[in-house]
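Example 9 (inverse folding). The structure is encoded as follows.
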């Protein structure tokens, strides 16, 4: 396989490993201070981490000494992309088209916006864990709410200045939602109370106001609720006593 522009065989490129048939199977760019955007072409590398001889195999692309990007595929087709603690500034929408992607970890980068034109694979994809904390995000695009398989959504320590979008209520499989240390204001949206699978809700250190609705009784799986450092007023509704699994309230 050769590059159309240069004629170079990418199997000879620094950090690239190919199998006997010339298919890229691994990329190792450890300690290269990678920055910029994740390219859309990442979605074309179907054979990263794939082996016809092993039931368990792993492709790792390392960036810097203590962080890594990886595409892991095991016998049950689990995949993860981990690119935390780098200088990444943008995300290609094609990342979300990876059929078996279950984890996308982009914590501690310099991302200013999430893609607004996500195209999901047929069936909605497999993404369950989305970590975008400690970036420079200022908004949450509506496209994000298409990711209805997501169970863990972390957006803490960004610069998001808005009300909490009601569209989050469409992500009915959410189990962990962390919106700590942003600039969210206004009341907690009614739609959020319908997330019956949510067991951890972190809203610490924002500018939320208003009162907590009695509808919180619908959040029957809730174990951790952190509302500290906001401007929420009024009394906690008596219905919070119906949350039998609640063990931490701040």
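The amino acid assigned to each position is listed next.
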């Amino acid at each position: 396989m050769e590059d159309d522009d240069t004629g170079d065989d990418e199997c000879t490129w620094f950090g690239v490993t190919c199998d006997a048939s010339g298919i890229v199977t691994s990329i190792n760019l450890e300690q290269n201070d990678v920055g910029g955007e994740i390219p859309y072409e990442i979605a074309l590398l179907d054979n990263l981490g794939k082996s016809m001889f092993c039931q368990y195999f792993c492709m790792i692309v390392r960036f810097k000494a203590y962080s890594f990007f990886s595409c892991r595929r095991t016998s049950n087709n689990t995949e993860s992309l981990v690119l935390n603690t780098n200088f990444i500034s943008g995300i290609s929408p094609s990342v979300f088209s990876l059929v078996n992607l279950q984890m996308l970890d982009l914590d501690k980068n310099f991302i200013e916006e999430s893609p607004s034109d996500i195209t999901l694979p047929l069936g909605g994809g497999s993404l369950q864990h989305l970590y975008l904390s400690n970036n420079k995000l200022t908004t949450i695009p509506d496209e994000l709410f298409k990711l209805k398989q997501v169970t863990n959504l972390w957006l803490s320590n960004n610069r998001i200045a808005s009300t909490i979008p009601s569209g989050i209520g469409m992500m009915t499989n959410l189990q962990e939602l962390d919106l700590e240390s942003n600039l969210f204001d206004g009341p907690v949206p009614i739609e959020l109370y319908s997330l019956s699978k949510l067991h951890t809700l972190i809203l610490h250190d924002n500018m939320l106001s208003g009162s907590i609705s009695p509808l919180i009784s619908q959040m029957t799986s809730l174990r951790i609720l952190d509302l500290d450092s906001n401007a929420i007023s009024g009394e906690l509704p008596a219905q919070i006593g119906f949350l039998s699994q609640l063990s931490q309230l701040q």
